[in-house]
Amino acid sequence: MAKNRLIGEYPIIGIRPTIDGRRGYLKVRESLEEQTMGMAKAAAKLFEENLRYSNGEPVKVIISDTTIGRAGETAACAEQFKKAGVDITLTVTPCWCYGAETMDMDPMTIKGVWGFNGTERPGAVYLASVLATHAQKGLPAFGIYGHDVQDADNKEIPEDVKEKLLRFGRSAVAAATMRGKSYLQIGSICMGIGGSIIDPAFIEEYLGMRVESVDEVEIIRRMTEEIYDKEEYEKALAWTKEKCKEGFDKNPSEVQKNPEQKDKDWEFVVKMMCIIKDLMNGNANLPEGCEEEMSGHNAIAAGFQGQRQWTDFYPNCDFPEALLNTSFDWNGAREPYILATENDVLNGLGMLFSKLLTNTAQIFADVRTYWSPEAVKKATGYDLEGVAKESGGIIHLINSGAACLDACGEAKDASGNGVMKPWYDVNEEDQEAILNATTWNAADNGYFRGGGYSSRFLTTAQMPCTMIRLNLVKGLGPMLQIAEGYTVKLPDEVSDTLWKRTDYTWPCTWFAPRTTGEGAFTTAYDVMNNWGANHGAISYGHIGADLITLCSMLRIPVAMHNVPEEKIFRPAAWNAFGMDKEGQDYRACATYGPMYR
């Protein structure tokens, strides 16, 4: 649907149909060829019809040229997949096979095994045997086995098997897509925020990515020397003037910029956005003599330092951050970028995880304030209702910069509900509604002496969403927190009263995590009180189960979540590390360690 703006092919899924290799008078193998290859074709069809890369194209799936019954065919399949660039393998079978001979032994592929639940042949026996062999050899694999017995001639994939196959495929594609790409930090540590202290070893060893760094002065150099796509810039500026509404200026009149100065700020921030895109992914349309700058940094995600040295002097990066993270710009709908405000790389990577799983724009926000029902009542006279009441309060998500504009909830589904869509489903009507719900307010001079514009909108729909935070802990390494819940629509006068207690010129989202009455999810207060940092990455939809699966592939333990236990899907070897799911995860991740070390 769109050109891949990164260097490197998208990951390919390879299907390995393994089979009982015995031949002879009873033709054991021959009798299973059609059923075994049928499973492979059904799995491939399921992936191709339901999974997409981040550019909107269906995932590519290839099937082994033959079924795999003995070591020679295993080697032939490995060679076929190597030439095709396969990063992910799914082994499928309805029967017994010689596990150690037919298994995927490549330590760099992400592995799943689907064993057919039928009585005619022991597919379950093979599945258990080969998963045990995977564990014995230190090659974790996901085991997929249907709940109910099927007839041998039933070609339909059961719903529970579909769910696991798609969770495996979606998460594996996300994990493999990051390989070989870059995180670009523009500037460095911001205002003493730990999340912006970049750790190259973590990014290299756990994600298979590299770290690229440029000083913020590079943006000024490119502006000064006119190293940008002038045609693109003029188009962007014209669109911005037409579509981006300027909001009120809350600054004291004596420090407000005049109209001419504000126009100059608009030109600056639009040019800044064009240059950051070029830094991330390059641009063949830069002026002649700028061949070095044309190549970019192959960045799948980036962060901008901003405060304070930049924003004390230059217009802030709120416009580039918000609009790059949004699912459209002057060229229409396009794949969202990931650009973290304050160069909070850990939050940026959390946004990247969720974007790759959903293909939707992401929200970057401060996890700013917990409002108890009692506090809301005292401040406004309003009694919380619905999910906000059930959660025992709400959390205010608000930050000046990088929340995608899609988060206003003005895009509509077929039933007229406010939603956030995969970028390739965002139509022109959605774009207009989102832009009309957003104003661009002069930057708060107390925070941003250099000026600029902050996006301002209110999330107006109750939408399912998932908030996550990636943290680094000394002595432990990386860990992830997950809180599924809902955005909350408050009455306008209630929202305004609470919103004005903080910065009224920034985008505002009220969030009610789904609570369980226990531990960190007793109430919304406990979620806030157990959150690991000042920022959160928020995605549309309840995607916690997918994130748990993805993190197991990356060997990142999940420390806090409210995902139902029956939805947790990790490699089968995790079951050998104890009976408690969270403890299993920690011990297994510590044992296997990062894939790229």
UniProtKB/TrEMBL annotation:
Amino-acid positions noted as binding Mn(2+) in the UniProt annotation, renumbered to this chain: E342, D366, H535
SUPFAM superfamilies: FucI/AraA C-terminal domain-like, FucI/AraA N-terminal and middle domains
UniProt domain L-fucose isomerase C-terminal: residue ranges: 397-561
Gene3D superfamilies: 3.40.50.1070, L-fucose Isomerase, Chain A, domain 2 (3.40.275.10), L-fucose/L-arabinose isomerase, C-terminal (3.20.14.10)
Cofactor(s) needed: Mn(2+)
Compartments reported by the entry: Cytoplasm
Catalytic activity: L-fucose = L-fuculose
This protein's encoding gene: fucI
GO biological process assignments: D-arabinose catabolic process; L-fucose catabolic process
Pathway: Carbohydrate degradation; L-fucose degradation; L-lactaldehyde and glycerone phosphate from L-fucose: step 1/3
An example Gene Ontology molecular-function term: arabinose isomerase activity
GO cellular component labels: cytoplasm
Domain L-fucose isomerase N-terminal-1: 11-180
Protein family according to the UniProt entry: Belongs to the L-fucose isomerase family.
Domain named L-fucose isomerase N-terminal-2: residues: 181-359
Residues annotated as the enzyme's active site: E342 (proton acceptor), D366 (proton acceptor)
Matching PANTHER family: L-FUCOSE ISOMERASE
Protein name: L-fucose isomerase
Record's function text: Converts the aldose L-fucose into the corresponding ketose L-fuculose.
Known EC number: 5.3.1.25
Keyword annotations from UniProtKB, A to Z: Carbohydrate metabolism, Cytoplasm, Fucose metabolism, Isomerase, Manganese, Metal-binding
